Amino acid sequence: MSRPPLGRIGAFLAALSLAFVTAPAAADWVEPWSTLAGPSGGPPAIWGRYDQGCIGGAVALDLDGPGFQVIYPQRRRNYGHPETLDFVRDLGAAMQALGHGPINVADIGQVRGGPITGHASHESGLDVDVWYRLDLAPLPVEERRGLGEVSAIGADGAVDPAHWGEAQVALVRLAAEDPRIARIFVHAGVKADLCARDWPDRDWLRVLVPEPAHDRHMHVRLNCPADQPGCEGQAAPPAGTGCAGDDDPGDLGPDRLAAYGSPGQPRPPGVLPPACGRLFTAPSVR
Fold it and tell me: Residues 6 or more apart from 125 whose CB is under 8 A from it?
């Protein structure tokens, strides 16, 4: 009996069976991962990098909780590793205790991670976008589908006092002080504002990475959990705060650029670990 020709999904699965998988075309690469019905079974398991990886046994963040709400629930991008979800819950509770919030949680990752439209990472369940916008009351789920982000940066590249204040400062600081955090991507104007403030402890500024297109939200990235040997993390940020000063060239110094990568670099062609191919074909459990 002759073998039927491979369709689009079949060809994709055949490619995934290789030792490493290369993604030559963004459209063919991303769409299958976004259409998976649900997470795989088993305990959480991360394979690969933040920008070239996947996650088995992902867990969904509740759409509402003390101090937080998920924005754009129709995207089904509220899945991640349990440590990521715990971080969000802890941050929401801390902001609520200060009288702020709720925090607005945008994309974490897809039901099994993997390549995702609109992002160069968010593939391993350890990234989460949190809006700077904190003026929204708790909203019914249906009213969160078309909300707009608000930029915290003015036309001059500095923070806009109309949309940046002590609540936003507290949001970033609380996140950056969390020991689970690898780094947080923010607009350069946000970091400049935080660097200019008088802090008794400035060590947390080290994890803030200036990055274009982060004027409306901060992108929080967690370290690989200790029980995830398949997870490929990043080196700790270089010593120093990255705030330009007498003895620090700031984030444009060669050591920090080498660790962060130059802002705005295009994503290289991606490869996924072999385990992601097996994960892609595993049955869904929920």
Answer: 44, 46, 55, 58, 79, 80, 81, 84, 108, 109, 113
Residue-wise pLDDT for 183-219, tens only, equals 999 999 999 999 999 999 999 999 999 988 999 999 9
**Parent domain of 86:** 8-281
Nearest one of 237, 236, 207, 230 to 219, comparing CA atoms: 207
pLDDT of residue 271: 73
Domain CATH code at residue 261: 3.30.1380.10
Q: What integer pLDDT is reported at residue 31 of this predicted model? A: 61
Q: Residue 95 domain-assigned?
A: yes
Residue 132 lies in a domain: yes
Integer-rounded Cα radius of gyration of the chain: 20
| pLDDT, position 256 | 57
ω before 102 within 30° of 0 (cis)? yes
3 lies in some domain: no
Burial class (CB in 10 A: 0-12, 13-18, 19+), 178: middle
Cα–Cα distance measured from residue 72 to residue 37, given in angstroms and rounded to the nearest whole number: 18
Low-confidence stretches of the chain (pLDDT beneath 50): 1-29, 246, 261-267
> How many independent structural domains does the chain possess?
1
Distance from C-alpha of 133 to C-alpha of 149, rounded to nearest angstrom = 7
